[in-house]
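User: Okay, second chain of the day. Same drill as before: sequence in, structure tokens out.
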Amino acid sequence: MKTIIYNINDNFDYYLQMAAGLLTNGKAVAFPTETVYGVGAKLHDADAVSRIFEIKGRSFSNPLAAHISGIGQAEELAIGIPEEFYLLADRFMPGPISLIINKGPIVPDIVTAGKSTIGIRYPDNEFALKLIEITGPLAATSANLTGASSPVNARDVYSGLQGRVAAIFDGGECRYSQDSTVVDLTGDGPLILRHGAVPKTEIEKVIGSSL
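Assistant: Same drill. Structure tokens below.
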């Protein structure tokens, strides 16, 4: 497969529709977010989602996150959403945080690696948000081979995934250039699983307790 990099700043709306078309036709594409570049497919297209694992050389036991463009989409994908989700979402979403909550029955098992939980990511990037508004939620993760560093520009994506992904949409350097902070809200209390762009101290301020 030949991989082409498209600079979205050359014609934002044209490349937005191109990306949406590829996703709708079962392809996986790489796109910018405010943290790192992601590779995604339509969340409800199990065959396309499986391609993400193949592209990255990722174990099917390692779940993907649901990328959304509004809290209403999270409510459609999840059940029993805790109060902490809304507190943290109100403060940090859209933004560089991923919140793990209990998944609803409409989420394909392949997305969550058969787990009963799902990570919710609401990216603060115009291209990503408008793309999700067109396609609906995306299953996505960082656009790199498993074990490699998360890519913060299109060149990084190309060097790792050329020939593996249908297209790379170049939105320039990522604003934070580090992964999102991942917080699990399905246990007895919030638990940070991955430290990232949102500091622990800021999360503690919102939930009113130490982590």
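Helices lie at 12-24, 46-56, 71-77, 83-92, 109-112, 126-135, 154-161, 200-207.

User: Thanks, on to the next one.
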